[in-house]
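name: query_chain
kind: protein
chains: 1
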Amino acid sequence: MSETARDRAPAEQVSELTTARLSVYLRCLEVLDTAAVNTISSQGLATQFQLNAAQIRKDLAHFGEFGIRGVGYYVKDLKRHLRQILGLDRSIKVVIVGAGNLGLALADYAGFRQDGFDVVALLDTARDKIGQYSRSGVPIRHARDLERLVERERIDIAVIAVPAEAAQLAVDAVVACGIRAILNFSPGHLRVPEKVKLKNMDLTITFESLSFFLANGSLDT
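structure:
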């Protein structure tokens, strides 16, 4: 198994669909590793997890040569490489802006910690929330502490979980502090500078897609 810097495609040439599939492959490999499977071929991976073998090979080819002819992929090695590619070989610091029901639920989700995402704090402006903690012990701090928190904790990702009317102000604040990766749960269109990555998670749109399926009996999304 080999990988060199010149083998790896520049990040801007790799689509979000590709990186999303890498996350799926990683989860499949974790299942195999837990089951003490040492090696697996792309076809074996595709068959067991209902994936596409050709797509697996194409996606991995963006980042190097990982398989061995006649053997396939070493599960532990490929899992380690995928974690490195996805930036999961280190602790990733997260701050959540908005300590309402959604923000608190996100802060307490154990899966984030298992994957290396460390939720450092929740931020809010409501006096009755400041100084409190989520059920898992994440502290709630005043929103004005954002800049100091980013500097001290070296925050990597900000999660926006505030009402729509406050979302752009929240985004502007985290961008001003130097955060370049934002996950937004607030509805509506938000503006960010070109070098800031914004991912929107509008649950209403997802519900509407499911509603369309129920109304039309269509599998198209």
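note: The radius of gyration is 20 Å.
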